[in-house]
Write a structure and sequence with these properties.
heterodimer, A: Formate dehydrogenase/DMSO reductase fold, 15 helices, B: alpha+beta, Alpha-Beta Plaits, 3-stranded mixed beta sheet, elongated
């Protein structure tokens, strides 16, 4: 008898779920916001360019050459984007491994950001592949190139997306009101977290290792045997800076989703994060100096590339590091935000330097991305923001979970 | 060899080891005989720059033939590209005009092969490095990795191929020799096993030390290549890259690759351990709340 009632209620919910999803698909909020008015036309142009890329080949829309086969779509979308998405593994490490409950309120939104970043950046990767359909070869084993760094990166990418999805999935279950499902999914969180951090460490370093074989092509100030380690360390503070930056925007845009006391809590979170950033950047800077001295790179400093190197290391690592340190001691939120933006610029500089600017720095003809490549990159970012906004407005990401979720896990 | 105690023990030890693992050892010896790869020896003292190799190469692989204006000229650097697997260039050197052919070096341990995540770039058992279109996904990581900038990509195509010299692999499999070696009127291009070619190259240098610069390009470069060069002048005068390392390029990523498995196994255990160890933190903060 009991079972029958239970089955009945399950069925009832099943029946409700599709109309519910359909109703959720409709836009919430104003349609003609400044952001929409700017982003929509750019995205339209972007879609046309993406169509042309598949219709006429990669050479039709990009400025790539035989000497520089990886451009903005890899150098920014993938190499830089993955570093920015590093916040997801750092935050879940703090919350689920170190059990620091303080950071829990921003864990879910960070995981969502990470998941969307990976989803769309690997989507952007498909645009850059000459034979995108053959990407299944990596999965079905036609053939497994196990000695390839890219093989490792690809598989760790794929599995990490799965881990991120599992970490976020309780929010989807809460949105759908699926209690049983939520219980199962939240039970998998710790496993996904452990798995996800491991995968992250390896693919973040793997992206650095991708360039190890390009020994003579990358300027000696940027090329070193420790690139894999440096990429992991910089992904920690790069990821956290993205969390700070994105959080300060979300707090303004989605203020309706926030609890009244969340502002205070958020400030205390920012202080903690800026301390972590300062410490991490100190380690990074120290390693940079060791590598610099070990490789005896003094001779390159008085050159053009040397000055460019100093701009990156002093202007966008040392200075934001000191700002983070200063503002975490003085509880200055504004300077934390400024420092996070400077750090993000520093990460962009570093990744672009390794993959594009210092790559074949001595060539007569340099690669400069075409405007079409920029538009496609913007399109990818805008799609991600649109999807992010859609989810935040509907699922319990920034706001608290529904009351039926008792265990805070 | 004098039989003293040390050598006696060495021989004894080796015999013991080979008796113990006799069969597998023999097998691995046969497999790792990289010196038995086929290769090509190109002698730029013999080359007359007639472009016959370019023409037959284009014909063999269905590529456009070089037109009459597209000739090797000193000061003009012609490059291989998606329509041209091999080029002859002329260089003004200390001993006058010298020609040099450029194409894939067919490394013993190719960077492109190690880079390729689907093994589309493949070092064959016979020696040629080939590209397999049914596997390639067009990521161009081979182009990033190749120290000689050999693989070329068809940017204008919707189903692009990677274009490079394959040492006429189809012909080599049938027991024939590559078209460039077969058709060279000056006998500047010789096909054979790498071991024979190295011997021949050394013989030529020894027999005519005044003619040859004392270096075989490709013997050590990038860990050894199947394409070997002889020249009358230092190789930088012929536009060769001299910053190529003598270790193989895949050796640069070997340390990283071998660290993956230990990290994949040990890190989760460490993370779970930390999680258990810091559980009390969580309870404390909950108590405070």
């Amino acid at each position: 008898m009991r079972r029958a009632i239970y089955a009945h209620s399950e069925e009832k919910r099943e029946n409700k779920i599709w109309p519910f999803i359909l109703s959720e698909l409709k836009p919430k909020g104003k349609v003609f916001t400044p952001f929409n008015i700017i982003s929509a036309p750019i995205m339209l142009v972007g879609f046309v360019i993406i169509f042309l890329r598949f219709w006429n080949g990669i050479g039709y829309v990009t400025n790539l050459t035989q000497e520089v086969p990886w451009g903005l779509w890899i150098g920014f979308d993938v190499v830089t984007g993955v570093a920015f998405a590093g916040g997801a593994y750092v935050l879940v490490f703090l919350v689920y491994i170190l059990n620091m409950e303080k950071y829990k309120p921003i864990a879910r939104v960070t995981v969502l950001n990470g998941f969307l970043a990976y989803l769309f950046y690997s989507g952007a990767l498909l645009l850059d592949l000459g034979r995108p359909l053959h990407i299944v070869n990596v999965i079905i084993g036609n053939n497994y190139g196990v000695s390839s760094v890219l093989f490792l990166v690809g598989w760790h990418f794929l599995l990490y997306m799965l881990a991120l999805f599992l970490e976020f999935s309780p929010a989807i279950a809460e949105w759908l009101g699926a209690r049983k499902l939520r219980k199962i999914l939240s039970g998998m969180t710790l496993g996904a977290v452990v798995f996800g951090i491991t995968l992250s460490v390896l693919h973040q370093s793997g992206i650095g290792a991708l360039f190890l074989m390009a020994k003579e092509k990358i300027h000696p100030l940027w090329y070193n045997a420790y690139m894999p380690i440096m990429f992991v360390v910089s992904s920690v503070f790069g990821g956290i800076s993205m969390v700070i930056f994105e959080g300060s925007i979300s707090h303004k845009v989605f203020s309706d989703q926030m609890e009244s006391d969340s502002h205070e809590k958020h400030n205390s979170i920012l202080h903690g994060l800026s301390k972590i950033c300062a410490a991490c950047m100190f380690v990074y800077l120290f390693s940079l100096i060791l590598i610099f001295a070990h490789q005896q790179n003094w001779q390159y400093l008085p050159t053009k590339m040397g000055i460019w190197y100093l701009v990156e290391v002093i202007g966008f690592v040392l200075v934001p590091m000191m700002l983070f340190y200063y503002s975490s001691r003085n509880k200055n939120i504004l300077w934390i935000k400024i420092a996070s933006i400077m750090t993000l610029i520093g990460i962009i500089l570093n990744r672009m330097n390794v993959s594009i600017i210092a790559f074949r720095w001595d060539d007569a003809i340099r690669y400069v991305p075409s405007w079409k490549e920029f538009i496609v990159t913007l399109t990818i970012i805008f799609i991600e923001v649109w999807v992010f906004r859609w989810i935040v407005r509907r699922m319990p990401v920034l706001r608290k979970s529904p009351s039926w979720v008792k265990d805070s896990h | 060899m004098k039989i003293n105690r040390l050598n006696f023990l060495r021989v004894l030890g080796l015999t013991g080891v080979s008796l113990a693992i006799g069969k597998p050892l023999n097998a691995s010896q046969k497999k790792s005989s990289d010196t038995e790869f086929y290769g090509i020896l190109y002698d730029s003292t013999r080359c007359v720059g007639c472009q016959e190799c370019e023409i037959v190469c284009a014909k063999e692989h269905g590529l456009p033939e070089p037109d009459s204006k597209d000739m090797p000229m000193a000061g003009v650097k012609r490059k291989t590209n998606e329509n041209r697997r091999s080029v002859i260039n002329a260089y003004e050197t200390s001993v006058g005009e010298v020609y040099a052919k450029k194409q894939c070096m067919h490394c013993n341990e190719p960077a492109c092969d190690a880079a390729c995540l689907t093994q589309a770039m493949h070092k064959t058992y016979e020696g040629p490095v080939i590209w397999r279109g049914d596997k390639c996904m067009g990521c161009r990581y081979c182009m990033i990795s190749c120290p000689f900038d050999v693989p070329k990509f068809e940017y204008q195509s919707t189903n692009p191929k990677i274009v490079k010299c394959t040492m006429c692999y189809e012909r080599v499999k049938e027991g024939k020799i590559p078209v460039c070696a077969e058709n060279c009127p000056a006998e500047a291009i010789v096909f054979g096993t790498r071991r024979e070619l190295l011997k021949e190259a050394r013989k030529r240098i020894v027999e005519d030390p005044d003619l040859y610069y004392d270096h075989i390009y490709g013997e050590q470069e990038a860990g050894g290549t199947s394409f070997l060069y002889l020249s009358p002048v230092p190789f930088e005068e012929l536009g060769f890259k001299t910053n190529i390392q003598n270790k193989s390029y895949p050796s640069l990523t070997k340390g990283f690759i071998s660290a993956i498995a230990p990290v994949d196994i040990l890190l989760p255990a460490a993370l779970l351990g930390i999680h258990e160890a810091t559980k009390s933190n969580k309870k404390n903060t909950e108590d405070e709340l």
